[in-house]
TrEMBL record, chains A, B, C, D:
Signal peptide: none annotated. This is Acetamidase/formamidase family protein. InterPro entries: FmdA_AmdA. The lineage of its organism: Bacteria, Bacillati, Actinomycetota, Actinomycetes, Micromonosporales.
Length: 337, 337, 337, 337
């Protein structure tokens, strides 16, 4: 495969999308294409300092915008779309985080509803130094400052859902969406089942970094310039998002309660391992039990996200996943990058 | 108020809808109108006997069809739509229930995922005797037969969601949908917040009856002829579905885990009681703690449903809810019925 | 069976117990005995007015005292203890309820932990009129007063756990304990599996009434004079608490999340129905799905409680549960009462 | 501090304990003592090959034995016990894992109850090579073999609970117990609040390694020879288990559903950070949100376990935790080791 083309998409503000599904594509792409996409942050760039309280400067449902969607040629229901993240560059030298009323894991929320008043709403502005590879945290009510490793990720990426649904970009689910996992960094390939003609891919919500679970509900939110390579894997279905890196394969589960997300991811990874390697189901279950990792994505969004991961080196002589799409797109990236 | 008109809607098979939102209206109605709607059962009428296994005769996502949607004139975001259920008549002399692979509360499911094989899929056909007011259960693997009270309800009723979403009719949420509670029987008024211009109301999924939680995932599913009266309450918002009968008010919570649905319903009912009666929040919380009922709707759908109910007679001298819409629509029904 | 004896137990304050298990019996009883037990309220009687804030007048772990335990002769592991509630009389003409910091369903708690401050702690005093059969609610911050039906229940009743455990009386689980369900009223028979030599039965925590789920965490707490009849069912095991009334059988599930309590109760009731009636498992599942009730007990204790109930009249010609112990103890009660 | 003494405890089979609390101590130890403890595996060493099915060779409640308990002199309620793990040596050259009926995350269980039959019960025997530092996985139904890193941990360690309770060693909770986290490896200091006179410390259930969440319910179970150093921190309370390594501090949450364990751990870590560093609560919340890790311990035991961790280097100039007990015990270990 060689790159067919490399195009850049930079949406105007009123071209931003707020759903997966229910939206016409902005461009067509093909297997082997590179796409450079400018993405806004989850606040649409409107939160720039301590005085910009999100609940005041943002208006529901205009939160968590994505860029796109893109129509992927030859992608049909029953196929899988492979999306390789070549690079995720912060578009500005700052990022923001915040507490948001009744959102986050350590507060009552609209769903874990109580009679208590909300936590204070507050904004943190982070300096981002791409050359030093750091994100600068600064406390708001004391003088603590500390540098954290820059580890850019795409928080929200997905295709149109099935069943004629259109879903808010706040939601993570089987079609991707607001997965909010740091594993979606440059070098990772994401596999999503195609639900509609053309797949209808969109992305946004970059984070300069986030902790496990995004406990306050908000990462270090950034605009990005992100470059992707896409490939359609014909005739191969994917029920839940799969990730592949040079060293590991991962399944994503999105659900509440959190143990259901854990169960889904591990059941899926067990089945995927069986399919790839021919292990007996209980042997795969056992191997993952002792060698698996389970990084938590988010514990704040409408569905929580947990991943199940296993190192490829631990699996038997195996066929490559998705006919080696990860290696192929990685090579393509190397050439084009 | 007098009834402005009474019209009947009977969809052809290919006019059935499978989403809330994302669908153009089939008719316009106005406050005070009576609407008689023919609804299909959750299987689209395709499961008629033991050999009609749902997973074979039905095709995703063509499950749980609704009739409509209807555009309600003068309904705008920020208003509330009151829907009074005048009558729910079984359209046939039979109903069906079933086990469905990986669906229901006493099986692993797509979300509570395990490595176990599914339960057997099986169909139960119930005789419905409207004159006797009974539903006849017959065991499939022994000779037990017993009559249960006929208690018709609408399982799925809702308006278009907010945030440009379109949701499968399988889902219950703040806009209504697949609430699956027996409290939605004739004589009840349902209040739904309007999210989009025209509200866009639809309904279906009648049950001849169901137990608390619909534990196997399927009620006694029937086609119905259902008559509604609607009224727009201008300038009054409703966050979560409210129900009113002659004797009680109820709030609906839809969420997973089940305690979150319980919390939502009770927090909402506490706040509604405060708004209606002027009680202090903690006094309302206390009264509901000792006198509240919490009927479980479903423990099988994508969101579980719990209601919180309080008898009106226990509340202080109070303003009527929604400017007495329930009484007004009830009277209208009496005249027209 | 005739009553072997009728004795009364009234503990001194320092004889109250705070665990199931780990405690020596205060008396021996036999099958057919009637026992009249004086029980204190959950606050040990120390909360008597608005100024008696529970967190100040009570001291952990001296909450939720039970009277007993009683050694039941001939009760061995593998047997079942039937406990019929003959009468539950309020011992005083008042009861109390309260909010308690970080306890209850509409607040963050020690387990659903957030960074928010607690709700205000407040006490409600209820008048109890046994002759009128009412409980008088009075608001604390407005002038609302209303009478609620008196419906006395025992909140906490159980035997010693298995596995050499000793559990706080705050906890409900398979051995009974803080079940907090209104179904434990006079006329009900409770069946508990025996885990240790002598069963070691204790009870307390009467409520003049409570709503479904005990949403604020506290019922209308009362001291009681409660009369029981006990019988050992030899050679019959009981995994989770069973209840029987003249018209229904019920299984109790205790767990978090709440759906697990629901699942446990319904799986248990399905199995119990199969055992009693010889129905196929899926036929029992189906019948309960359409005719079952699922009253919520508590959504505040360390385990939540949900019951699954089915009317006896709906089941096929059946052997009586537990060799007809309910009828036998009911008759005994009639004679002795 | 210098080591006061170093003694070794090796229990005979009938000296093994199966509860925390409710058990007399086997020895007295003092702050600064080193203790070398022989621990059995979770099956009491009875599962040694594929034919030794745990449900057949083991008998409830004689599972998950611990060695001890030890009375720690001068430990009183309100103090904290610091336990530093110097070394955890596998006692044999093999370990075992298994599926166990209705136990584990990818099966229905006694609590997530369904009507499905259990998964097959099966045993895996692992070779352990201490010199090579590997654990050898071998599939049972194909010829796959792979070496995993040896990473010995103590699965179960705790003190007697409060409130006169005695708890099965299967349970993890605030007093420790069956925490099942790989973070309890050599080099880690565990802090536990003291609930009773003498603390009453016990431990067992070594794993040669385990994956995140111990998904099948069983790690690579081993007998160990484990060396500890203990110190009583007077006058400092600890609500939930704390861990400290050379580089990080961690809080442990134990609860169901899994998000509650996550919430507890993160609320605790936020508060601990505030106490240690003087950060504003929301600033600590924010820093943990972006830099925290949340390793899942178990998703199979009666309570699930999640940890919240933050690197010490990211915190402001700070007082050492627990008066620098970790460094002191680490130094002691270096001298004695």
């Amino acid at each position: 495969m060689i790159a067919m083309s490399h195009f850049t998409y930079r949406p105007a503000r009123d071209e931003l999308a707020y759903t997966f599904g229910g939206r016409l594509p902005v461009a067509h792409v093909r297997s082997g294409d590179l796409i450079t996409v400018h993405t806004e942050d989850c606040f649409g760039g409107l939160v720039r300092g301590p005085a910009d309280l999100p609940s005041q400067v943002c208006q529901m449902p205009y939160l968590n915008p994505v860029s796109g969607p893109f129509f992927v040629e030859d992608a049909e229901p029953g196929d899988t779309l492979a999306v390789h993240l070549l690079s995720i560059e912060p578009a500005r030298d700052w990022g923001v985080s915040a507490t948001f009323p009744y959102f986050g894991a350590l507060t009552s929320t609209s769903h874990t509803a109580t009679l208590q008043p909300p936590l204070d709403e507050r904004v943190w502005v982070y300096g981002i130094d791409r050359h030093a590879g750091v994100v600068r945290y600064r406390a708001t009510a004391s003088d603590h400052m500390v540098e954290l490793p820059l580890d850019p990720m795409i928080g929200t990426i997905g295709v149109a859902p099935a069943a004629m649904e259109s879903r808010s970009t706040i939601v993570p689910d089987y079609y991707g969406g607001n997965l909010d996992t740091p594993e979606l960094r440059a070098g990772t390939t994401l596999y999503l089942g195609v639900n509609v003609h053309g797949a209808i891919l969109a992305l946004g919500d970059g984070h300069a970094r986030q902790g496990h679970g995004e406990v306050c509900g908000v990462g270090v939110e950034i605009a990005t310039v992100t470059t992707l390579a896409v490939e359609v894997i014909k005739g191969t279905d994917t029920a839940w998002p799969h990730l592949e890196t040079d060293t590991a394969i991962m399944s994503v589960g999105c659900a509440r309660p959190l143990e259901d997300a854990y169960r889904m991811a591990h059941q899926d990874l067990t089945g995927w391992t069986v399919d790839l390697c021919g292990l007996h189901t209980l042997d795969a279950y056992q191997l993952i039990s002792q060698a698996g990792r389970a990084p938590i994505g988010n514990v704040c969004d409408p569905n929580y996200t947990v991943l199940a991961a296993i190192d490829k080196a631990l699996l038997p002589q195996r066929q490559a996943a998705y006919r080696d799409a990860h290696a192929r797109l990685r090579a393509l990236a190397a050439v084009q990058g």
